Amino acid sequence: xxxxxxxxxxxxxxxxxxxxxxxxxxxxxxxxxxxxxxxxxxxxxxxxxxxxxxxxxxxxxxxxxxxxxxxxxxxxxxxxxxxxxxxxxxxxxxxxxxxxxxxxxxxxxxxxxxxxxxxxxxxxxxxxxxxxxxxxxxxxxxxxxxxxxxxxxxxxxxxxxxxxxxxxxxxxxxxxxxxxxxxxxxxxxxxxxxxxxxxxxxxxxxxxxxxxxxxxxxxxxxxxxxxxxxxxxxxxxxxxxx
Length: 242
Prior knowledge:
Elements: H1 6-15, E1 20-22, H2 26-30, H3 33-39, E2 43-45, H4 53-56, H5 58-67, E3 75-78, H6 81-88, E4 95-99, E5 108-111, H7 114-125, E6 135-139, E7 144-152, E8 157-165, E9 168-170, E10 174-177, E11 183-184, H8 191-196, H9 199-209, E12 217-224, E13 229-235
Parallel strand pairs: 1-2
Antiparallel strand pairs: 3-6, 4-5, 4-6, 7-8, 7-12, 8-11, 9-10, 12-13
Helix pairs in contact: 6-7
């Protein structure tokens, strides 16, 4: 998708008498389109620039989880390629390597061995997804992934919908990760797991603690099995699978 400057969207809204906007793509959110339209007194649905770091930085989100004890995969943050490569030598495989910034859903590598992990590190640090100041390495989790949506006005929290997408490019979970190749409804059996682990309560923490800014919608990507639920990431926006 071609993203234009905020002023272009403002002029388009004024010229077409649009008085309410809902933001879908993550790039305008990270660039502060909500803050920009708020200053123009035009209604817009989406997180402000600071809260959009939940989408713009995987490391920011992981540190939120760590600080407020929200279950998430074990992780390490690395600033240098050699530092990350040394960590790989003592790591258990498979593991996950992630670019920190926006990568259109393509910046996640599931690495089966040290060779593939080194390739992932080199691609990210060499600028495949833009300048990389940090990189994230996570433990690999086994289970089914789903997205759980919550909408809020800052006081009331409502479950909005759930979704599940297929990440890998090939059948039987093979090949590189994509931004999601298709979506479907989540299996009913996992709702009891969500309720048991008070997922909405954990999402409330993110609403409240992210610089005290209102985030109208949060989706949390969860890894599920019959016994536990682990947060993979938070996204303060609608997703393309929705």
